[in-house]
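Q: Fold this one first, please.
A: Sequence and structure below.
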Amino acid sequence: MYLQSPAPEEGNRIVSKLALLGALLLSLPLAAPARDLTLAEAEAKAEELKLDPYSRLAPQVIMGLALKDWAAAGGRIGNVTVTPDMLGQLGAWFAGGGVTGSAGGKK
């Protein structure tokens, strides 16, 4: 199965419309606190709409997308120590089985 990120075009279109709404709100002769609050609400809604497609993805898919983007950007790590128990837990997490704690119960 291939990882496919959500189509950003729809989110970008909505965010663009909200940015236009924000610019319009700034031009209105509202009291400054009311204008600032309305603008903050529009910005919050734009951020929510931008992140909404990711809320339907499994955490493993989001982690995979993040690692892919990080690697594409030339991310580097100096030193990493991975113990056998950490590797086992990481493998179980990516397989969708969850992570077990030191007592053996799922976290």
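Q: Good. Now the second chain.
A: Here it is, same layout.
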Amino acid sequence: MEENLSKLGLSPSEIKVYLHLIKKGSSYANRISSETGINRTNVYEALDRLIAKGGKRKLLEYKFVDNKFTNPTTTIVYGDNCLLINWSDEPIAIKINNREIAKSHLNYFDMLWSS
């Protein structure tokens, strides 16, 4: 996968950050830094470059959320799939393959991001 991402024009640090976010879900820059070995400032720069490289279709977008709103569940929507991952002591993942559910989650996220 890293080779394919490199062929798409991603730098080594962008690849590490992108793969980390895919694997772990949303995260803080300091956590990405400590888990990838990339300097925190470089993590921010890699995130900005990933957003810029996405063009019309964003590869990724991030927002900072107050700690009181965080929870151990990550939601990933891709195609007609909705993946829910709970990162508790015994992580559990649920994959739902349903166009309407995926679309409803995307609509919800669009509403959150636009506010």
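Q: Anything worth noting on the second one?
A: The two ends are 34 Å apart (CA to CA).
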